[in-house]
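Q: What residues go here?
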């Protein structure tokens, strides 16, 4: 059995952040990663000579973001792309009505103003909601307060339903009323033309990362922690567990003694979502050049309603859309060709015969990834925002849970993962460590 100071389970951003900060403070750290790569749900594909982020894509707001600071310090190139948070009008968006025709500027402004009007009332309605209310419940109440006719109300209701799906990968009746409380953007959003995986690559430099080490169990007691993997066991004074909620909830990952009741209750009120990316590259552009996104309103957009123009990243005409919530569940197991045909049917409603066959199609399958079991976690009705933090409360000073689902202010993001890893490292050390040490400090020679 190998002995170290700290075992970190998972080489995603949370795990690498914790490991890097701990190693920088002189701790002997080993990072165990089940996959054959680092990054976790930050995963960049470079097949066919193209760079495609199959996992995380955006920094949702660069102001005050440690992820943005890290990217700058590491020299990672970013490109502004401020519509990733499903904003209604932050950048030029081509809206198409239920008939497929593009809305004129005046109609688009009216629609956007309607969404903002409902958003302005949502805060108070959510604050006054009951413990089991869903996001759909509070949206209905907020829309009803406007006194609009049925068609006008339906368009806004539909937009907010899609927001729930795109932001958390679930229909709004499966999301807690306050499940989008964190849905705020500070500053521009940016994406990574050379791949988001540059961030975990830099974080991992100098660390002892063991790939293809599937952790089976974590046993903790007065003599420390024993982490058993399919490649042997490790003994340590502490462990930082950064596996996703779906893995924590599975029978394949065992913590003994079991998690305390406080942690079990919080974990039971979280679920992994169904959220997949569909990236289509085309031989030529058929959509307008002055837009960041294309959206269609109306019932035809039940699954495919938003496309994001990624052409500016490498000059290749590229659209990104999401299978979110019900759509992701429905296409599970479909071939890429079948998914593409479904998407193209909707694009051709809007653009007709101008839409050619794509030159390449990529479809993710995070629901079927045994080391993720979904893209990220969401709050079930009946949950509270405290559930995120409750999950991260240290257990006997030895077991520390981290990852995006354990960060209250910005869950479901790379930022949340990074901040949670920082918090876990500080708790292991028992003292504050500046987060800037991630990109400014040298690793200890003991690692």
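A:
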């Amino acid at each position: 059995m190998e002995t170290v100071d700290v075992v970190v389970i998972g080489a995603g951003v949370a795990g690498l952040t914790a490991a890097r900060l701990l190693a920088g403070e002189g701790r002997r750290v080993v990072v165990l990663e089940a996959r054959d790569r680092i990054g976790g749900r930050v995963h960049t594909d470079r097949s066919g000579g193209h760079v495609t982020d199959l996992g995380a894509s955006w920094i949702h707001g660069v102001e005050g973001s440690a992820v943005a600071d890290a990217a700058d310090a590491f020299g990672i190139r970013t490109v502004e792309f401020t519509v990733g948070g499903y904003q209604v009008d932050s950048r030029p968006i081509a809206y198409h009505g239920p008939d497929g025709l593009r809305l004129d500027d005046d109609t688009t402004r009216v629609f956007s103003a309607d969404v903002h009007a409902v958003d302005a009332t949502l805060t108070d309605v959510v604050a006054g909601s009951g413990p089991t209310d869903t996001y759909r419940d509070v949206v209905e109440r907020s829309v009803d307060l406007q006194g609009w006719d049925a068609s006008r109300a339906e368009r806004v209701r539909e937009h907010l339903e899609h927001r729930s799906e795109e932001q958390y990968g679930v229909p709004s009746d499966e999301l807690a009323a306050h499940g989008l409380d964190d849905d705020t953007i500070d500053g521009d959003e940016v994406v990574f033309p050379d791949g988001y995986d540059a961030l975990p690559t830099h974080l991992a430099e100098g660390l002892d990362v063991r790939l293809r080490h599937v952790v089976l169990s974590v046993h903790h007691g007065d003599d420390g922690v024993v982490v058993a993997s399919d490649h042997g066991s490790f003994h340590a004074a502490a462990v930082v567990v950064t596996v996703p909620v779906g893995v924590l909830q599975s029978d394949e990952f065992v913590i003994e003694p079991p998690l305390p009741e406080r942690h079990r209750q919080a974990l039971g009120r979280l679920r992994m979502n169904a959220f997949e990316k569909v990236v289509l590259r085309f031989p030529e552009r058929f959509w307008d050049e002055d837009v960041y996104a294309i959206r269609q309103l109306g019932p035809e957009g039940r699954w495919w309603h938003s496309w994001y123009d990624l052409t500016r990243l490498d000059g290749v005409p590229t659209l990104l859309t999401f299978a979110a919530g019900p759509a992701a569940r429905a296409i599970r197991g479909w071939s890429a060709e079948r998914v593409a045909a479904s998407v193209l049917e909707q694009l051709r409603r809007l653009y007709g015969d101008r839409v050619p066959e794509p030159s390449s199609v990529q479809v993710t399958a995070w629901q079927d990834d045994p080391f993720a079991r979904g893209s990220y976690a969401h709050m079930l009705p009946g949950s509270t925002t405290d559930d995120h933090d409750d999950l991260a409360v240290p257990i006997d000073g030895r077991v520390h849970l981290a990852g995006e689902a354990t960060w209250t202010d910005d869950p479901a993001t790379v930022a949340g993962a990074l901040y949670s890893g920082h918090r876990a490292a500080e708790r292991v050390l028992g003292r504050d460590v500046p987060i800037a040490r991630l990109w400014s400090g040298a690793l200890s020679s003991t690692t």
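A: Context that may help when evaluating the design: The mean pLDDT is 95. Residues 109-174 form one domain.
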